[in-house]
Design goal:
- Helices cover 7% and strands 57% of the residues.
- The chain has five helices and 35 strands.
- It has helices spanning 2-19, 51-56, 62-69, 133-136, 413-417; strands spanning 45-49, 73-76, 83-86, 95-99, 102-103, 124-129, 143-148, 155-165, 169-179, 183-194, 199-202, 209-212, 218-229, 235-250, 261-278, 281-297, 304-321, 324-339, 347-361, 366-377, 381-393, 398-409, 429-441, 445-463, 470-491, 495-510, 529-539, 542-551, 554-555, 563-564, 567-580, 583-592, 600-602, 605-606, 611-619.
- A hairpin with a 6-residue loop joins strand 11 and strand 12.
Amino acid sequence: MRRMLFICTQLVFSATLLAQKDSARALPEHEVTAMRFGTKPNGLFVQETDTLLHRLHAASNLEQLLSAHSGVFVKQAGPSQLASPGFRGGSAAQTAVVWNGFSLNHAMLGQVDLSLFPGFLTDKVQVQYGSQAALYGSGQVSGAIYLQNQKADTGFHADVLLSAASFGDYAQGLKASWAQTRFQVKQKFYHRKARNNYPFLNTLLFPVQTQETQHAELETQAWMQDIRFVPRANHKLELHSWLQASQRQIPAVLESNSTPSSQEDKLLRLSADYQIQHRNWQWNFRSAFFNELMWFTAFRSNPAYSQARQFIQAIDQSFVYHNHKLISGLQWNYSKGVNSSYSGSGELNQLAFFSSLESGWLKGKFRSQLSLRKEQNSFSAVPLLPAIGLHVQLMKALHVRGSWAMAYRVPTLNDLFWSPGGNPNLLPERSSNSELGVDYISPIFNLSLNGFHRLTKNLIVWIPGASFPQVENLKQAEAYGLEFIWKASWRNAKTWVRLQGNHEVLRAINLSNPNDDSYGKQLIYVPRVRHNFLAIAGYRNFSLSWLQTYTGQRYTSTDNANALQDYLLADLRASANFNVHKHRFQLDLACRNLFDTSYAIMLNRPMPGRSFLVQLIYSI
């Protein structure tokens, strides 16, 4: 470990000396965005959600925004229950959620719960299709979700959110910011309480009966703060804080011996970024601390306590020379898990060196990106990870891109230390990712067509044992498919129209054991087909929107003998915007699941039928 640290330090230092040799060309000011290194990766498709979509889903959690307007498929056990993101056939542990350049994937569980991510706290979301593990590290296998806190506008601004929805669902939020040239501060508060006592059709009973969901309440409170300070020219400091507490009840699974339970979560997330620019080079010094607590209480039992802490230190530099940009850096991650079922230290150290060279040729019509990463952790060395991306502008509106990358995922703390069943000898998951895409970009119509392939080895799987489950590197899987994403818009003085859609055809199959019934079969809970479509028509300050989503059947057994039925959902929303002097109001009335479709995303976990929402946003 010390030898690797020495070598990586020398490499970064050498790159810095190179950066100081030549060129008086000034580097444009770089704003810290959801993408840690400020630019979109060459060869990969990145989809953004804009202010309009965020305001439509201000009272919702992120799982609703992403499910409706991106290729992310969220496995959810019910409203306010565990919501696990994944796309392109990857699991939640293979999908990174990144906040201010740092992965939020839980050190013990390996994933995030999007039901605990209030959309009101996030200004912008970017969804990256494909892997950029060479720069961002473990977990970026199928793609990533970037959460962005945008720079505040000059002066004082505030937003107040009030919403009421069916089944006792109420939310309140406040955003307030004050900004000058050299200093800005932004505060966000959010509170939501929901009973979630929705009726559902229990088809497991004979005769079929309508029942009401019991023991499914949620209450969450969150506070977020962003501070930006420019002490001198070309120096910038950003500080971000996120504090949240949630309590929720977990209903019993239908047709099982399970009993109701409850869970309490508390988290603290802190990050800091100090940026220095001098001519054509830039340094970033980044730090983060995450502390997440959880108390899980089964029926008539004492709470089970767990704590996950992460310390992250990173330093990276970028150097621009004509049409070339060199990025290199070091990152150290320390993770510590506390649980009564752990054996061993419950600690994991990770040290990584990464570098990337972006180049532009033929007046920017041909762009390339070559990235490398080398990582060592407490238990094993991760092989060298290369990645290459290409982007070619064939015509003014027509672009072609392609990429190939190696990706990986290290075992979670639960995989390594859980007793009984954990395995400290686990190897990291490894995958080979390739894709080819075509983009057509014009002022009124954009479309992207993506084809992708991924082969993953050493998949970490918990398998049943004689006395208890055990975790091993057993599985191999392949995923390939096509994605079609498009958007069209038109506007005149009084009228505007917006249409957009996401369409996906996917095969994700198990290749572990040719003698097993699951060989060559679709992975469980991975739909082969998904579509979503949004249409918005506006006249002056009024608009009407129609959202329709289709999800194909999902298999619930590895041999594909059992499946959940496909479903089609429709939402209708009317919005009105009006001003009173300098005060702005947006009123939304929505009907969700308009046709009262009975469906389930996960087995024996029914979802709500038709529901209604009233939302008001006041801005100053």
